[in-house]
Specification:
The protein has an eight-stranded parallel beta sheet with strand order 1-8-7-6-5-4-3-2. 34% of the residues lie in helices and 20% in strands. Helix 2 runs parallel beside helix 3. The chain has eight helices and eight strands; from the N terminus they run βαβαβαβαββαβαβαα. By secondary structure, the protein is α/β, with parallel strands linked by helices. It is globular, with a radius of gyration of 16 Å. The chain binds D-xylitol-5-phosphate and zinc ion. The site of zinc ion has 6 residues, from strand 2.
Length: 218
């Protein structure tokens, strides 16, 4: 299992130490949640400058999750800041051509492209983009804040994506985000998830390493 610790609620006064915990616990990705205060109610600390600060401190894959209204406009800046994976929301655009254009731009900037969906969006909305993306991020909470409870509805969605992947030979990674602790992570693993995002369970614990290793072993 690939682990992508979310630094959304970490101690920013000790950013290097917080990243070091992730790296030394065996995480391969670091999850960077970008919130614009429009797509989601709150504006977050993680914008392009923070991605640039994180970049290169440890050999972690910068897994950027854009919760923003017009992702196309920001792709280039995040790529330049060091993003390796750029994931945006299918709800960001009504027009499929805009979604395809965003995926193309992410690729042309040399990054892997991910697409995500909110709990209220039908998983079928992703179908036209599945052959094009490198990652699908299933939200198991309403995007916008850490520390919420896992929504079980994510499980059949993960299973749907895992089946599609197998049937069509697609290459995307399946990632889940929100309310991941050992028990919920285990259910997601059984449903076919390949990357676990986890924030408060790791960063609000005295045993980051033990918990991270537990998730990686799933
Ligand atoms: C929610 C963010 C998540 C969040 C996860 O909008 O996308 O990445 O940080 O935090 P936990 O693991 O605490 O639910
Ligand atoms: Zn996220």
């Amino acid at each position: 299992m690939i682990l992508s610790p979310s630094i959304l609620n970490c101690d920013y006064s000790n950013l290097t130490g917080e990243l070091q915990k992730a790296y030394e616990s065996g995480a391969e990705f670091i999850h960077l949640d970008v919130m614009d205060g429009v797509f989601v109610p709150s504006k977050g600390l993680i914008q392009e400058e923070m991605v640039a600060r994180v970049n290169g401190q440890f050999p972690l894959v910068n897994d950027v999750h854009l919760m923003v209204v017009h992702p196309l406009k920001r792709v280039k800046a995040f790529a330049e800041a060091g993003a390796n994976i750029i994931t945006f929301h299918v709800e960001a655009y009504h027009r499929p051509s805009m979604i395809k254009k965003t995926i193309e731009l992410i690729h042309s900037c040399g990054c892997r492209a991910g697409i995500s969906l909110k709990p209220g969006t039908r998983v079928e909305a992703l179908v036209p983009y599945l052959p094009l993306v490198d990652l699908v991020l299933v939200m198991s909470v309403e995007p916008g804040a850490g520390g919420q409870s896992f929504m079980e509805e994510a499980l059949p969605r993960i299973a749907f994506l895992a089946n599609r992947k197998k049937e069509h030979g697609y290459h995307y990674l399946i990632e889940v985000d929100g309310g991941i602790v050992y028990e919920t992570g285990k259910k997601c693993a059984e449903a076919g998830v390949e990357v676990l995002v986890s924030g408060s369970y790791l960063y609000h614990s005295d045993d980051f390493k033990g918990r991270a290793e537990g998730l990686i072993a799933l």
